[in-house]
Amino acid sequence: MPKPILLSVDDDSDVLRAIERDLRSQYGADYRVIGSDSPERALDILKQLKVRNDSVALLLADQRMPRMNGVEFLQEGMRIFPDAKRALLTAYADTNAAISAINEANINYFFMKPWDPPADNLFPQLDDLLDDWRASYRPAFEGIRVLGTRWSPQCYELRDFLARNHVPYQWVDVELSANDLETKRLLDVLGPDAASLPVVLFPDGTKLLKGVPAEIANKVGLRTRAQTTFYDLAIIGGGPAGLAAAVYGASEGLHTVIVEREAPGGQAGMSSRIENYLGFPTGLSGGDLARRAVVQAQRFGVEILSPQEAVGIRTEGSYRIIKLADGNEISCHALLVATGVQWRRLEAPGIDKLQGAGVYYGGGSTEALSCKGEIVYVIGGANSAGQAAINFAKYAERVVVLVRGDGLASTMSQYLIDQIQQTLNIQIWTHASVAEVHGEKRLKEISVLCSDTSKVERVPASAMFIFIGAMPTTDWLAGMVERDERGFVLTGPDLMHGGERPKGWPLERDPFLLETNVPGLFAVGDVRHGSVKRVASGVGEGSVVVQFIHQYLSKV
Ligand SMILES: Cc1cc2nc3c(=O)[nH]c(=O)nc-3n(C[C@H](O)[C@H](O)[C@H](O)COP(=O)(O)OP(=O)(O)OC[C@H]3O[C@@H](n4cnc5c(N)ncnc54)[C@H](O)[C@@H]3O)c2cc1C
After folding, report:
1. What is the pLDDT of residues 234-249, one digit of tens each?
2. Does the C-beta of 262 come closer than 6 Å to ligand 1?
């Protein structure tokens, strides 16, 4: 925890040095002592300290300074750090000014110069002031702070990115906390910069205006650039399947890298509670599973580049080469595609402009807390929608699940249906689909088409979470990797037609079980044609594929 600050200001450098020396000798163990030879500079320092979220315990200023006297400085300083104790250093001749300052300008104490010996004339009074300050001191939050508004898609994207990458941060909603004095002070100090939301404030005092995930990634220690250009195994996609392959590959000695577009954990990272994963009888959140897997992979030396996107692949002899979105390339001997699936878009008038401003695809774990006391709509009838409804019901006043069919029985697991039935504030609205979405800057209402009555009902809604199935996004593999008509990647036996190996296959063996039509290029998890769309099966395929990779590498 950073030490609270004692700031002294004096334009006379000898006096400044003397007071700093005395403060440090007596209080250096518990406080950081900062000196400034000008009140203007001292105010700048205070503003920086405010941005860093530091605590200031004491402002000590000489009364006689050109341009701005001590009392004026303390009054200005008080606007930034109102809880700091304020003391003046005065010459005997200024005693009257000091006494009136105590009354008029809320100064806590004045010290006469010279203050020798400090043990009699400085420390006892300062001890008193600092004890008083400590009594109401609450240590400030130390990490990253994000200032923004709930209904801004950019703010949502940034918060979701930080949450999914397990970067702790404090969220300051500048609209909701408009009446909070501390927020007002911070916005004052930021001045015009405060308009460039989202503003990200780092503990080292630096700030990012209109922050986007890629800019923040490096700053918070997420790695987006590979350490070397060649790996035994490169994995595209850091969901359960990719992470499992990385753990098995690296633990068996393969120099391994993962390229992940958003955050390790994949879809599973959005799940509020996975209850069917072996070994966790009470379930675990997807975020927790992802965090554990990342630690495990890193322990075996896996490099994780995130956020970083693969945009193309090619082969050069036995080398498999990935083209990255930032223009760099990574080459490897074995390449694994584990890019899973992405949410299908809901087609409804008005929906696109409200994405991130009340309309969300997927779990929206960052939003769950913000839905306190609100009416939330969940669209879809599969397990992911069920999990989300149960999670939102903990915070929202009411959760309405819209399903096209006449119930959940054919699309959702019974254990989730049972939980939903036991949750009083979840309502299932059957034969219902979204016809239109309304709102200018944020979601206000949705029109629901009721297929049993053919009527459209317009209802108020502040948040709508969409879970209507998912598709692979594999167009960037087209022309090289064989896929089915929906874009899922074909592997192993699915590539064989009438006992014939795939076109252009150069080897004297059939493709391995999880190998594509390009030797040494494998696919696992949800992106693979015919895969079971579950965490455990993704993890299983990711673990098994490493055996085939070893067999492939032994012949390269
Ligand atoms: C809300 C929700 C709840 C779920 N609950 C359960 C459950 O309870 N039990 C269960 O068994 N299953 C559950 N599932 C399904 C399960 O999460 C998936 O089957 C599993 O995550 C698939 O793993 P994967 O690694 O194949 O793909 P994904 O998890 O989809 O991971 C793929 C990763 O690849 C990345 N990626 C994609 N394209 C690129 C690219 N070009 N470059 C770099 N990276 C890229 C993506 O960002 C993503 O992180 C749930 C899914 C969701 C969405």
Report:
1. 999 999 999 999 999 9
2. yes
